[in-house]
Design goal:
Strand content: 25-35%
Number of helices: 0
Oligomer: single chain
């Protein structure tokens, strides 16, 4: 894409935390363990959108040990 408004979302199960659902926060380093939402579509309590910036930009993230991880961008 040529857009500067692109975000990545990194999720998985934290192997070292009872396989809890884990997401990386917008800083690309801090792990967020969300509580089970009361309803489908309930907003997350933390910002987990990792801004990728303009085309050609490089973003470095620190992914902890996860099982079944996904990265969507």
């Amino acid at each position: 894409t040529s857009s500067s408004t692109v975000y990545a979302y990194i999720t998985g199960q934290a192997i070292n935390n009872n396989n809890r659902v884990a997401l990386l926060q917008s800083d690309g380093r801090t792990v967020y363990y969300p509580d089970s939402p009361p309803n489908t579509g309930t907003p997350l309590a933390r910002n987990v959108a990792i801004a990728l910036g303009a085309p050609g930009n490089t973003v470095t993230v620190q992914i902890p040990q996860m099982a079944g991880g996904r990265s969507v961008g």
